[in-house]
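Researcher: Please translate sequence to structure tokens.
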Amino acid sequence: ICVDRDQAALDAAEERLAPWRERVTLVHSNFCALDAILDGLGLDGVDGMLFDLGVSSPQLDDASRGFSYRRDAPLDMRMDQRNPLTAYEVVNSYSQEDLERILFDYGEERWTKRIVQFILKAREEKPIKTTGELVHIIKAAIPKGARSEGSHPAKRTFQAIRIEVNGELKILEQTMKDCVRRLKSGG
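Model: Translation complete:
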């Protein structure tokens, strides 16, 4: 049973798993719906579970999805295109306090307050529509000396926004409880 909220990932799995298709069930859902998925398939439990968390290479490679800070695209970052919340809404409508909480808690961003100040100032002039615009704002907010250290200056901010858009951490605790309960003895 393969569960993914990204239809593109399920389409790729359908192709890759074609030789074993009669033994594979693909489900377009979120793993937080584990109980409902297993109940719907008439299963009391399973022998094992594997969770692949976070963003995937195909999501990063497809610039139109808005996950990558390396290519300009509309601010999106949704793993499931049915999700109404996008990165555009987070960046352009969240309060200063909420943006600071997200960048600090989910991105452990050292320059949280400064980045948020720059975002707020930029969106007063016009909405921030693309990943390229957001990267430009982040680079302007981080002092030049700090930008030359380590990874891309937008990496942590993009991670934080993606986690918020997709509710990635909010669902883990209950999901882990559900999966332990649904794991067969010896599984």
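Researcher: Any highlights?
Model: DSSP finds ten helices and two strands in the chain.
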